[in-house]
Automatic annotation (TrEMBL):
UniProt-listed PANTHER family: PHOSPHATIDATE CYTIDYLYLTRANSFERASE (PTHR46382)
Organism: uncultured Desulfobacteraceae bacterium
Protein name: Phosphatidate cytidylyltransferase
Location of the protein in the cell: Cell membrane
The family this protein is said to belong to: Belongs to the CDS family.
E.C. designation(s): 2.7.7.41
Reactions catalysed according to its record: a 1,2-diacyl-sn-glycero-3-phosphate + CTP + H(+) = a CDP-1,2-diacyl-sn-glycerol + diphosphate
Length: 270
């Protein structure tokens, strides 16, 4: 399993690095939109496993996700807000109209709304980071620090883990693993800051990285809550050794808004 994880990571990393370094902001936004569709597919497989992906509520979220992310990319936040509002209104109308035939229509609508916020809206923060000042560097800070935190948490938890962190949600996660993950996040992000953003104040960067690590681990636990409630171990099988794509980006989803905030308001991002 561990060998598969490393092989998958080594195969995907060059493409992602090339996309970030050589691709334009448009390319990155299109990539994120594609990622959102795969992640949404896995998300609905977790929360609504018995509901066909062709259900109107699910199709509505799939249809809204790429335009939402693209509208954020082109700074048309009025369109993004309109899409979110329209989605809420459609789900509300569908719940009222379909309640007589389907007692779970409210549940489906609620999970649909959660999906477009949890996956699509949260991923759009990564697009905002890429489009901001020093966006390429900040995207690397986000991705490298979160993935380093995952790796640090895994190895620290495996070798040093004694005290469970949140046993009812994820029995294998430990306090020691969480601390190791935070340390890895701070170290990885600090290295990027040192070489590529030397003018930034260290205090703000360390605070940003600590919060990034905390929120990334919260994102991991949140997905674990969804999977635990449905009795599912992995969100999918698209990434050998890792599970699903959502399993890989769950920390990114929660950490991206934090990184974007520090980029734009505390680190001189524009």
């Amino acid at each position: 399993m561990l060998l598969k994880r490393w092989i998958t990571a080594l195969c995907l990393t060059p493409f992602i690095v090339w996309l970030i370094l050589m691709g334009s902001g448009d390319h990155f936004a299109l990539f994120v939109a594609a990622v959102s569709l795969v992640a949404l597919w896995e998300y609905f497989g977790i929360v609504l496993p018995r509901t066909p992906k062709t259900h109107p509520d699910i199709l509505a979220v799939f249809a809204a996700s790429p335009p939402l992310i693209w509208s954020v990319h082109i700074s048309r936040f009025d369109i993004a807000a309109g899409l979110m509002t329209l989605t809420v209104l459609l789900f509300g109308a569908a719940s009222i109209a379909g309640f007589k035939k389907d007692a779970e229509v409210g549940k489906k609508a609620a999970f649909g709304l959660l999906g477009i916020v949890y996956v699509s809206l949260f991923l759009s923060w990564a697009v905002l980071i890429r489009d901001g000042r020093d966006g390429i560097v900040w995207i690397f800070i986000l991705a490298v620090s979160v993935f380093a935190g995952d790796t640090g948490a895994y190895y620290a938890g495996t070798r040093l883990g004694r005290r469970p962190l949140c046993p009812f949600v994820s029995p294998k996660k430990t306090v020691e693993g969480a601390i190791g993950g935070l340390a890895a996040t701070v170290c990885a992000g600090s290295a990027i800051k040192f070489f590529f953003l030397p003018a930034l104040p260290w205090g703000a960067v360390i605070l940003a990285l600590v919060l990034t690590g905390v929120f990334a681990q919260a994102g991991d636990l949140f997905e674990s809550v969804l999977k635990r409630a449905s009795g599912i171990k992995d969100s999918g099988k698209i990434l050998p050794g890792h599970g699903g794509l959502l399993d890989r980006i769950d920390g990114i989803l929660f950490a991206a808004p934090v990184v974007c905030f520090f980029q734009r308001f505390l680190a001189g991002g524009g």
